[in-house]
Amino acid sequence: MEPPQSNALASVLAVVAFLRRNWLRVLLTGGLLALFFGNQGFRGLVRNWLELRSLSAEISALEAENAKTVARLKEMRESESAVEREARRVGFIKEGEMEYRFEPPKP
What we know:
Elements: H1 7-37, H2 40-78, H3 80-89
């Protein structure tokens, strides 16, 4: 016959038996929890990766805008009519010309 065991000893033995059966699961779960919640380096790595994606998209957009600007600049350097068109777009008039302004139609 076995001697009576205290509740504390019984609970310790139950935990030991659980760990013997599930040691790999406990180890992997603990490792993943430590990786995701206790490791500032991993979270920083993810944050930096997200920022890299955002900045890469921004760089692509700026490079496309720069290419358009360079093309416009090339056109302005090579064509007098492009310069005149741009000057009129911003509101310049030639010497001796009159500017007419009309009120917008009322609805």
